[in-house]
Amino acid sequence: MNSGFPWLLAAAFAVSVQASPITYTLTDLGTLGNNSSANAVNASGQTAVTLSTVYGYERAYAGTTNITPTGASDAMAQDINVFGQVTGTTYLNGTPYATLWTNATASYLTAGSYGMSLNDAGQVTGMTGAGHAFVTTGGNMTDLGTLTGGGWSSGYAINSSGQVAGYGDTASGAFRAFVWTGGQGVQQFGTLGGANSYAFGINAAGTVAGSAQVASGYLHAFVTTTAGLLDLGTLGGASSYGYGINAAGAVVGYSSVGDGANHAFLQRRNLVRPQRAGWRFRLDAEVGVRHQRRWTDCRERTVQRRRACVTADAAGVPAGDSRTAGGGKCSA
Q: Which of 50, 44, 112, 36 is nearest to 79 (CA)?
């Protein structure tokens, strides 16, 4: 079969779609007088939202329902599954607790822990009070330990099989992306020629997406293959960051462009597809995926968000590499 034929069809379809643009409506989920952030959405359109009050306290919401436990000073909703269960972090008397909400009722894990992601089975991953990645099964927490010689790790994504993707430090002080699989343990990934790598997304097949340093020190988005990390490149700038991956292996994130601005991207079949300037949403004709431009100010987010905070200094080397899920700040 002519391998170019499907691409010609895709091109023809792209013309027909652009001739009749589809429009979408953004729904403002509101605030409590300060900032708000929708961190996840499930197949039914239910959202996991964190809102800040005028005094800076954070409140967890499942859609429009306030699920912040009574007596909590702060609560953050990070992820939501198909059944409407939510995970995140609740602060009680100043201490964080990874939390699983079921029907708006909170169940707490151990003191000092942070909840980052959950799957449809209700398994949660994140970081323990000891600074180790964890996964839960039936409400019981399993400490996933650290990478060889390292002292810190955290899980940031979990798939339907209970595989956990995240990153941790090593004996040298460098950070490495990893995937943990029950019965097999931790698989540590390398880099793209630089010092560090970070994993933030995993799909049902166990394919991981994230960012890794290239030889120059800049971060590039990657996706894992049987041969290792595949560099997804950039949109013309120095850096790119991969944050999510779907069942088809499509990766989303953002990249710097030639003028220094950041643009959202969708990667499919080794092509990084930018969002056109000024568009809120567009339809990618080849893969039929709608994606939204997302601007991220790392100083306004904490690593307690599902997607870890990553920045770069003037030389392009990520700042704040000593951060932890409990640290909550990026350094510049």
A: 50
| CA-closest candidate to residue 277, choices 261, 298, 297, 299 | 261
Non-local (6+) Cβ contacts of 283 within 8 A are 17, 22, 289, 290
Residues 101-122: tens digit of each pLDDT = 999 999 999 999 999 999 999 9
- Side chain identity, residue 122: G
Q: In this structure, are residues 87 and 42 in contact, taking their beta carbons and an 8 Å threshold?
A: no
Token pair belonging to 308: 């870890």
d(CA 245, CA 267): 9
11 phi/psi in degrees, rounded to 5: -65, -40
pLDDT digits (tens, 9 = 90+) for 43-70: 999 999 999 999 999 999 999 999 999 9
Give every CB contact of residue 50 below 8 A, 6+ residues apart in sequence.
36, 37, 39, 58, 59, 60, 61, 75, 76, 77, 78, 88, 305
